Amino acid sequence: MNRSKSNISIGVIIGNRDFFPDSLVEKARSEIIDVFAKLKLTPVLLESTDTKLGGVETFKEAQKCAELFKKHSEEISGVLVLLPNFGDEKGVADTLKLANLNVPILVQAYPDELTKMNVVNRRDSWCGKISVCNNLYQYGIKYSLTSQHVSFPTDALFQQDLIDFVAVCRVVKGLKNVRIGAVGARPGAFNTVRYSEKILQRNGITVTTVDLSEILGKANKLTKDDASVKRHLEAINAYVPQGKTPNEAMLQIAKLDVVLKDFMEEYALDATAIQCWTSLQQNYGCNVCTSMSIMSENMLPSACEVDVTGTLTMYAMQLASGSPSALVDWNNNYADNPNKCVLFHCGNWAKSFLPDMKMDTAPILGTTVGVENTYGALDGRTPANPLTYGRISTDDPKGVIKAYLGEGALTDDPLKTFGNRAVAEIPDLQGLMQFVCRNGFEHHVVMNASQTGSILEEALGNYMGWEVYNHKV
């Protein structure tokens, strides 16, 4: 499901110390440019003529590198520190302090080779990396580490570290500027989705609210003859088979889709959380699930029940993996297997999770509002896939944002029911449920078909500064 193709700019600092061989710096610069080209990343680094071979050692060289970074500050999503030799820890730290980019930083160090431990080839980067990190810690600069203490840029392991670091950069940059639309009021019976707008705003997360009546009022003014309605109706039919859904309900869904799209464009929104029951069914006569599914599939995540921090979680996971996320209920046990459970929602998951989906009704909701008013829900089963799950929440008594996450698997175990559904297998699921319940988390969780738990932990915990629990067994 990975769709991430964006070309990201990363600043590069090549550390140097004058009593180590200059050739090591020159070669490191050439190697990292090749690696970036291979991974389709854009390096922002000094020319080899700007400083001694493009390295950074003295304060003046740090100033030059910082000025370069500031010039490209709108483009740079993160910084890579390369240590082909011991490096000058002050040069690296001063560059980052002067540039003041406030982006993630990855510290790499080259390994020494046993056959090249003479004066001409010796690096001492193992030791230098510790010294650089010590200085960054002193300066209060947050940073990330490679999975092995030293590695060559040409190593597959380092290149995966770099790919994961780029994902961390995407998450951090995205969350610091995300704009979420809250459409309508939360269901009255769902205190569980309450959240603090003020805490979110302090973390750079903006929530724009709109009354559901405004959305429905605008939708009701549209007609089947409007060009925008015709376009959206065609798009919906191309997205999912109409099945037994009446034409009148399809028209209502298309009109609602037009207004929601306009609302998102007007306020430059990245995600939405929508009051999906019961006012919608009682006053408008359909479900909004199909529209929400289309938005999530198009990387504009949409969560039901005005779960704003739920859609924030969807967005974070989408940034980490490059693929759509889905908001689900921790819904049922799976027989007597303690490490399996059923994930469920009425019918708004992205198409990526529902290869066999069809448009239908929402039977549970229909028991109170009339099944004929619930057309637009999607029915489908999620097949076996990798799984990252998690939840971001505002903890108002503590005044913080907290999160939990982990990895598992979606399985093909038999499951005869309706709606959007999946079976998840999670190591020590019972222990996880203990944590969720004891720490006051919501019954909603987010799933993503990826293995990105470590990326999210680094982004949310280290750089966003949130309280993060990673469920590892």
From TrEMBL:
Pfam families: Fucose_iso_C. One of its GO terms (cellular component) is cytoplasm. SUPFAM superfamilies: FucI/AraA N-terminal and middle domains. InterPro entries: Fuc_isomerase_C, Fucose_isomerase_N/cen_sf. GO terms for molecular function: L-fucose isomerase activity. One of its GO terms (biological process) is fucose metabolic process. The keyword Isomerase applies. Residues 343-469 form the L-fucose isomerase C-terminal domain. Keywords: Carbohydrate metabolism, Isomerase. PANTHER family: FUCOSE ISOMERASE (PTHR36120), L-FUCOSE ISOMERASE C-TERMINAL DOMAIN-CONTAINING PROTEIN (PTHR36120:SF1). This is L-fucose isomerase.
